[in-house]
Design goal:
This protein is of the alpha/beta class and 302 residues long. The protein is 26% helix and 15% strand. A five-stranded mixed sheet has the order 1-2-6-3-7. A two-stranded antiparallel ribbon has the order 4-5. It has a two-stranded antiparallel sheet with strand order 8-9. Helix 1 packs across helix 3. Bound molecules: zinc ion.
Length: 302
Amino acid sequence: MRLRTATIAAATVIAANRAPAQQSLTPEQQFAKEVYKELLEINTSNMTSGTTVAANAMAKRFRDAGFPEQDIFLGGVRADKHNLVVRYRGKGGPNGPKPLLLLAHIDVVEALKTDWSPDLDPFKFIERDGYFYARGSSDDKSMAAIFVANLIQFKKQNYVPDRDIIVALTADEEGGCCNGVRWLIQNHKELVDAFVVINEGGGGSLRGDKPFLNSIQATQKNVVNFKVTAKNRGGHSSVARDRLLAHVLCVKSGDRHRPGADRRDSTYRADFLRERYVRHPLGGRESGQQQQQTPHQLFPFS
Ligand SMILES: [Zn+2]
């Protein structure tokens, strides 16, 4: 998804694709940056490349850090679409609490060099004016790099969590033949079975060097289709007046991208839309009867 990534606290080292000042990096942050760079410079385009090279590169980092082979899994739908699952053992043991799963996809949407600015390459890591540039720098390789770096840092510090922590780096979240999450659930559920999952969505931010905000987004990945009809006297957006039909639809459907739109969370929006359009849909889905409704009934806040 084309969203800013969420980060976790602990040894979080990079906030999305905003670059901290070079001289301020700790060795841990520098390590995370190297992981991030390595991931970004491996082409994992979901339609023309695979994830296996990137998954192998991250697996090597875990092996080099001393993770035992039995806690490192590589596999997927196809040989070029591998996922990586790594388990960091907590103190709970086999009967302990269920694990925490940190999930990030390592595929990216296709990117052609010819479509990018002449001085940028989608698969070359560039740091400029305080930002990182490359395909996936925000979605979702920053999150993947943070998870990898944090887990390796935990091991270096001999940190033993109460529960196992699993990192899963997956294929084809952006679409394609070989969705890694689905494949893991269907074929190796024991590897990713968890108490809670942290996935992309939400977003972290810093004020100066200090963590300021880590927002959480729930139930973002649902698809709901609505048929919406609105009536007013119409008009043309080039001669804008207040309450154009398009505005009415935009406001009432809760378009989160509209400038100045109310940014309530998506869970609330789902409830809002269900309440307004599913419980009383145009087609009368609950009753099975076609309902005739005026715009006022459809848009009770008009
Ligand atoms: Zn994404």
